Amino acid sequence: MSVSDSSSPSLAAAPPLGSAASIAASVRAGDRSAREVIEVHLARIEQAEPTVHAFNLVLADEARAAADAIDRRVAAGEDPGLLAGVPIALKDNLCTRGIPTTCSSRILEGWRPPYDATVVGLLDQAGAIAVGKTNLDEFAMGSSTENSAFGPTRNPHDPARVPGGSSGGSAAAVAAGFVPISLGSDTGGSIRQPAALCGVVGLKPTYGLVSRYGLIAFASSLDQIGPFSTTVADAALLLDVIAGHDPLDSTSIPEPVPSYTEALGAGVSGLRIGLVTELMGEGIAPDVAARVREAAAALEAAGASVGEASIPAATYGLSAYYLIAPAEASSNLARYDGVRYGLRVDAPTTGEMMTATRTAGFGAEVKRRIMLGTYALSAGYYDAYYGKALKVRTLIIRDFAAAYEQFDLLLSPTSPTTAFRFGDKTADPLSMYLNDVCTIPTNLSGDAAISVPFGSGDDAMPVGVQLLAPALGEVVMLRAAAVLEAAAPPSASAAPAEEVAR
Amino acid sequence: MTALIVTSPSTGAEWEVVIGLEVHAELATVTKMFSGAPNQFGGEPNTNIDPVTLGLPGSLPVVNRAAVELGIRVGLALHCDVRRSTFARKNYFYPDMPKDYQISQFDEPLNVEGWLELPDGTRIGIERAHLEEDTGKSSHQGGDGRIHGAESSLVDYNRAGVPLIEIVGKPDLRSADDARAYVSELRAILVAIGASDGKMEEGSMRVDANVSVRPVGDTELGLRCEIKNVNSLRSLVRAIEFEARRQVDVLEAGERVRQETRHWDEEAGRTRAGRSKEGAEDYRYFLEPDLVVIDPSAEWIAEIAAALPVLPADRRARLASAAGVEPADVAIHVDRGLDDLALGAIDAGADAGRVLTHVEHNLAVDGADALDVAHFTELVRLEIDGKLTATQAKTVLAEMVETGQPPEVIAKARGFEAMDAADLESIVDGVIAAHPDDWAEFVAADDKGKVKKLSGFFTGQIMAASKGQADGRAVNMLLNQRRAGT
């Protein structure tokens, strides 16, 4: 798919029927039918999806049927749950029973999972309605959604620009008003960076807070599922539904989870917040850095104390990440060999069939990372590369632990720049990798972080600021995020809600 | 411990064979190593599977606690140090391995540094015993049945993900017979503790043998070959003996043994080199990020240890000490699971020699383990007291196993009553009188063969006359007295 370089009008829109919380409240109260909710959102999708291309698959019929089932339950006096009738978009690396799940890769061609991811089951139990599977960089490897085998997703704020990635489709679906909430996955910033570039809220939970069962693995020790939303309250609500221990995921934290929604209004009075100096200097665009300083000031004005925090090892995070993640990926993606499911390119011998299948089925970036990872784990190189990266990871964990002794939360940019134009970084993988410099350290430490929209850059594109919290610090993090949300200047290119809510 | 020394026919040089065994045993759990799919042998292809077994995208492994418990049992039974352990991924592409990596324990195994005692008392070191998952099974259609040259291949994933324990022995074995004894003993232990059914023929226990040879007296290990595809104890012995001789031939021809994997060809009775590997395979091991550390608490280990049954070596020692013999002499009694019966009878005062003899020769039958100890004790007592002949005792014992009745009841029903000494004497004298020529020849004979023949003749006549009720030993004694003229 070729993408025009010319600037087009913004397709960004507030969700047509408001937040997930308000939709659920009206459906649960019987004030609005789930079917109506779905029809309004499907209409919005029909309107702008041809340009945005947020979805690999829109589940219109399935969504209507699910909505009717919700309406029958409401009519019968039942409560369908916290997300009753709320349309949601799912990143296409989350397994959905009987529904194609592609990871935006040719290699999974024709595969329909025989089971639902744990989060998909939880959403279903809460009454949410999946309206589609969203586009991503193939196997979640990328920062622009340009690596999708099915063509890129456009940024609704400016269709000539990327939505970020890898969860670009999920971010764009929310920013375009297709759905009020969506799910993405974050391995090195794949929720937060597209959230920032698309002007929506994106939360990466603590590693182990949300089950990974049914999330098709990129890098198992880093992957985490999390919400996109237009409001901090919706992110908390969605987290309420998907967080919690899952016996099917050994790395899932076996602890009860608090209500994230309940604590939201508590403010930041008395909280100590540290601005991460290593993530405010070189490489960070001045307009982005300015918004972050304004966010710090807003937190201070709301009663928090703000100081400078240091994560010295953070600058090595990128290098460590691009060894650890590809190493795990090289192993995780070995199973796509043409033997059992997905694409098979026939050849005279099994070995040749595997090679032909993988050659045809994987895109360039996936191949690059498989090779990087295979190399990093190879005899003679393991200690110098993978082993060294693990040591850096340990240092980053230590640095964060030390910082969190002085601060309750940390603050930084989410992405060094606002959304860039298609093709700007595809020729130079390293410049693309640099997009993740602010987000990667949190994946390496396993902690929580959230990106909150905070005004615009000089190009009128959205800027996101990142709040970072220690493991299981989501409650405090969401309190501060709500304060930033309230204090944020409006995003320059977002259409007023009334225009599309008619 | 016996050593297999290969003597060169040409030079007369003596070579010693050194063997280390790697045994894979399937653990007898209800479900698989990392999922709830059933762990069952056989079944229609691809029926005992689930998303985890097939390594479907998005599926995740969860360690089966029962497999860890059985793994710890094995470790404790092999006197290992049971420790904190982790899983790693062993990466290589193979169609019967669903994820194209095997989850196995690598640098931090569950059990390390133990030993196994052979029936003759030799201790064989155990390097480690770790947990891993089994692979599926490929069958190749067309060609010679191997993957190369096959027209197509079918894969059955029923076995994929079955929990395995790999027990790596140290190169402490010195003969094929000892290797067999080691595997037998290991199997007996695994069965005794309920860890595995140990069925080599179903592949639930598989043995790879690392074999090398060196000049007698050398302490350095020679270059070794790993022999695979050994499916029975008999094959193991044949394969090791073949391989040792092959290596001696190679070395004596002035060549070097190539470190390689060799396959045992049962029909041809020889090992064959596998596909030669260009350099060592690089499995790119790294810590399995989908699993967490297994750190069994001291309490749990103690609980498992307390519940372990008495192991074969201890059972042999126990019975041997009660019977006043060597442990190796009672190996068969323990193998048959009849050591408790023997021990019970000896403790109750039965003659140990007769008890061991009966168990070894007369109780190799189904149902013997259900024999009542008191009845068995009584039988041996009747025999020692001369109330039953050895032949009668054997008959009664067989019927005891079948019916569960006490020996007196069976003996009476069969009319087995001890013959009065005077009655026996009159029968003996009657037979002598009836065969005067034979008797004269017997008394005069000094040729050993002739004595034996005539003794047998008279014993037979006497037995017939007594309708089998005469005690063979008493008859023999009487005949000798009469022959000596006393």
Element layout with pairings:
The complex is a heterodimer of chains A (502) and B (486).
Chain A: H1 20-28, H2 34-52, E1 55-58, H3 60-75, E2 87-91, H4 118-125, E3 129-134, H5 168-175, E4 181-186, H6 192-198, E5 201-204, E6 224-229, H7 232-242, E7 272-276, H8 286-301, E8 305-309, H9 317-332, H10 350-361, H11 364-377, H12 383-406, E9 409-413, H13 429-433, H14 440-445, E10 448-456, E11 462-469, H15 474-487, H16 497-501
Parallel strand pairs in A: 2-3, 2-4, 7-8, 7-9
Antiparallel strand pairs in A: 1-3, 4-6, 5-6, 5-10, 9-11, 10-11
Helix pairs in contact in A: 2-3, 9-11, 9-12
Chain B: E1 5-7, E2 14-26, H1 65-77, E3 81-82, E4 88-91, E5 101-104, E6 111-117, E7 123-133, E8 137-141, E9 152-156, E10 163-169, H2 176-192, E11 205-215, E12 225-230, H3 233-252, E13 261-265, E14 270-273, E15 286-287, H4 298-306, H5 312-323, H6 331-335, H7 339-347, H8 352-362, H9 373-384, H10 390-403, H11 407-413, H12 421-434, H13 436-444, H14 448-465, H15 472-483
Parallel strand pairs in B: 12-13
Antiparallel strand pairs in B: 1-2, 2-10, 2-11, 3-6, 4-5, 4-15, 6-7, 7-10, 8-9, 11-12, 13-14
Helix pairs in contact in B: 2-3, 5-7, 7-9, 9-10, 12-14, 13-14, 14-15
Keywords, separated by commas or semicolons:
heterodimer; A: alpha/beta; 38% helix; disordered C terminus; B: 486 residues; alpha+beta; Arc Repressor Mutant, subunit A; 3 domains; three-stranded antiparallel sheet
Q: Can you offer a commentary on this structure?
A:
The complex is a heterodimer of chains A (502) and B (486). In chain A, helix 9 (317-332) crosses helix 11 and helix 9 crosses helix 12. Residues 1-6 and 495-502 of chain A have low confidence and may be disordered. Chain A has 502 residues and is of the alpha/beta class. Chain A starts with 19 loop residues before the first helix and ends with a helix. Chain A is 38% helix and 13% strand. Chain A contains 16 helices and eleven strands. In chain A, a hairpin with a 5-residue loop joins strand 10 (448-456) and strand 11. With 486 residues, chain B is of the alpha+beta class. Chain B has 15 helices and 15 strands. In chain B, strand 1 (5-7) and strand 2 form a beta hairpin. Chain B starts with a strand and ends with a helix. The model of chain B has no long low-confidence stretch (mean pLDDT 91). The chains are: A alpha/beta (502), B alpha+beta (486). Chain A binds chain B through residues 93-95, 101, 103, 108, 111, 113-115, 117, 212-217, 219-221, 247-251, 327-328, 330-331, 334-335, 337, 339-341, 349-351, 354, 374, 377-379, 382, 386, and chain B through 51, 54-63, 89, 91, 93, 95, 98-101, 147-148, 153, 155, 280, 282, 284-286, 289-292.
